[in-house]
């Protein structure tokens, strides 16, 4: 067993067996509507308010979930039985809880705005974090003010982040989410896909004289990023000619100084971080440079402070009051007892349109695991399939299945009370908000046969218009989607994911699953260099490759 595992299978935990018994006896038949009718305090009992460092608040309403007092108590026991608090202490002490890669998981040190001593391998990492932040501040101020000039003396207008996975999804999501705070004279672009279309389309919109490329790669060896960065460099040099000009137009966000230098980027234009920052947790690091350039350093600092406040909440609050712990435990409840396969996150916020995509990586790369921390195959279901789209758009597409399908789909709805764009006398915002409330209510309350009949529907139509209801939602109401709020919200989901992983007894911090396909792609890539037919794969793969060779010739 790894040092961080004190049990084998989550199903062996005493509270798991108790939860199973309660589920079988009554849990699966609980009606949230009836629980509300019976308990006027239900909302108060199951909602929690998070107070951010700036005094702003976020309301997490868990009361529409299928739980009662007994289940809530047993879920908390489950966290205790799984030794969540011990693992959390190791996590925040910089211990190597990512034991398969022998790494600490210490992105919390990147948002250590209160400047605590935070050690990895006995060394305080705070000074290094602060020095990179100071470098990013100085650099971003130069670029934003126009003091930093392109090779022909012009101010930078276009920022292109070249990176993939964790070196892309965070920056894309945050720049979109906080666009309200952006310097609109700058445009940001993100190139991630190896599909040449991605970079080709971006290059069509920019000008080499006024473009700054950020090559974002922790390892600086990722095939997609290296290929895209080389394409960008070749495109730039077509106009700029002299490779000395690269210094003004390419910077690197990486841990690999050797490869950065080989690429031709001056090490003083490199913003570093350490291997205790996992890719999907790296938006808080140098990987966030595009965010800083776009919204300014002060706003980024607020983003970090909001994140730090949620870390503080997570480490200091009792399990019963701990918002990410409750969220994660409810996810286990649905996943493992109700057999739910999915987790829907629907932001009622257009600025958050990439938030579900970001959370998909956070959740599914972290908890898409089937081996315990004790190296055994898990005997239960782990990571949920996370999906989502902003509402109200999603209501007009897949919400049908959420309301009337055969599957239980636990959902999170997110709304900011104050819109950044209160246009038409705030009409849009009121309509948006009314949908936020209505969807959660409708999913819980449903519509009975009697109600459908009373509406005068013909008898053969009645069953089609019935809504079973009792479909669980968590409503997250923020005051305004500020940098501080977004920081806290992301960290809510980070520690939600940690909680699930702690109970499932899996290592949430490695990602070997993405390796196999990468290795195969490399060897097949070589076979695509010529027209000779291949025969060393399975029948389907051989036929597909050979057809591709014929059609692409
Ligand atoms: C995230 C993953 C992965 C990673 C990308 C990019 O946790 O490790 O998504 O971020 O593969 O890696 P590089 O930053 O090294 O290019």
Give your account of this protein's structure.
- The protein is α/β, with parallel strands linked by helices and 553 residues long.
- 46% of the residues lie in helices and 12% in strands.
- It is built from 21 helices and 13 strands.
- The chain has helices spanning 14-25, 32-38, 42-46, 69-81, 84-92, 126-145, 169-177, 196-205, 223-240, 246-249, 257-263, 289-295, 297-316, 323-337, 355-367, 399-404, 423-445, 449-454, 483-504, 515-527, 539-552; strands spanning 47-51, 57-61, 119-120, 123-124, 158-162, 187-191, 211-216, 250-254, 270-272, 342-348, 385-387, 411-418, 473-480.
- The strands form 3 sheets. Strands 1-2-13-12-10-11 form a 6-stranded mixed β-sheet, sandwiched between helices.
- It is globular, with a radius of gyration of 25 Å.
- The chain binds glucose-6-phosphate.
- Glucose-6-phosphate (G6Q) binds at residues 163-167, 217-219, 222, 225, 278-280, 365, 511.
């Amino acid at each position: 067993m790894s040092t961080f595992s004190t049990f084998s299978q989550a199903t062996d935990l005493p509270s798991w067996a108790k939860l199973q018994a309660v589920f079988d006896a009554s849990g699966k038949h609980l009606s949230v509507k009836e629980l509300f009718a019976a308990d006027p305090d239900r909302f108060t009992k199951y909602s929690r308010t998070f107070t951010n460092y700036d005094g702003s608040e976020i309301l997490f309403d868990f009361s529409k979930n299928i739980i009662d007092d007994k289940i809530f108590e047993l879920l908390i026991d489950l966290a205790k039985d799984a030794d969540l608090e011990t693992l959390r202490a190791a996590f925040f002490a910089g211990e190597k809880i990512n034991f398969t890669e022998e790494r600490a998981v210490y992105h919390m040190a990147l948002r250590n705005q209160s400047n605590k001593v935070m050690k990895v391998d006995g060394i305080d990492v705070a000074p290094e974090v602060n020095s990179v932040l100071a470098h990013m501040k100085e650099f971003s101020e130069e670029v934003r003010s126009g003091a930093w000039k392109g090779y022909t003396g012009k101010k930078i207008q276009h920022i292109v982040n070249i990176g993939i996975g964790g070196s892309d999804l965070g920056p894309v999501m945050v720049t979109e989410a906080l666009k309200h705070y952006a310097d609109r004279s700058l445009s940001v672009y993100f190139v991630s896909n190896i599909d040449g279309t991605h970079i080709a389309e971006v290059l069509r919109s920019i000008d080499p004289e006024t473009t700054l490329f950020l090559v974002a790669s922790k390892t600086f060896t990722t095939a997609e990023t290296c290929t895209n960065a080389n394409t960008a460099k070749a495109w730039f040099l077509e106009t700029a000619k002299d490779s000395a000009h690269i210094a003004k137009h390419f910077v690197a966000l990486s841990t690999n100084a050797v490869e950065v230098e080989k690429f031709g980027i001056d090490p003083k234009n490199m913003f570093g971080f350490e291997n205790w920052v996992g890719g999907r947790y790296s938006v808080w690091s140098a990987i966030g440079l595009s965010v800083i350039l776009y919204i300014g350093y002060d706003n980024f600092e607020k983003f970090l402070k909001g994140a730090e406040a949620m870390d503080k909440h997570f480490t200091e609050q009792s399990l019963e009051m701990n918002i990410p712990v409750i969220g994660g435990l409810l996810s286990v409840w649905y996943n493992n007892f109700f057999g739910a396969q999915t987790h829907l996150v629907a932001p009622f916020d257009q600025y958050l349109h990439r938030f579900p995509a970001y959370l998909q990586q956070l959740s599914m790369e972290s908890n898409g695991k089937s081996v315990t921390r004790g190296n055994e195959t898990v005997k239960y279901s782990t990571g949920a399939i996370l999906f989502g789209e902003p509402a109200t758009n999603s209501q007009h597409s897949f919400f049908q299945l959420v309301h009337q399908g055969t599957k239980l789909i636990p959902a999170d709805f997110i709304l900011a009370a104050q819109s950044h764009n209160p246009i038409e006398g705030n009409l849009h915002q009121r309509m948006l908000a009314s949908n936020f409330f209505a969807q959660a209510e409708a999913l819980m309350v449903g519509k009975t046969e009697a109600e459908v009949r009373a509406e005068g529907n013909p008898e053969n139509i009645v069953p089609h218009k019935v809504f079973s209801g009792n479909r669980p939602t968590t409503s997250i109401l923020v005051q305004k989607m500020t940098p501080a709020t977004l920081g806290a919200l992301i960290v809510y989901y980070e520690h939600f994911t940690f909680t699930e992983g702690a109970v499932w007894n899996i290592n949430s911090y490695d990602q070997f699953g993405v390796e196999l396909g990468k290795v195969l792609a490399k060897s097949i890539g070589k076979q695509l260099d010529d027209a000779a037919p291949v025969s060393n794969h399975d029948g389907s793969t051989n036929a597909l490759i050979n057809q591709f060779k014929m059609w692409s010739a």
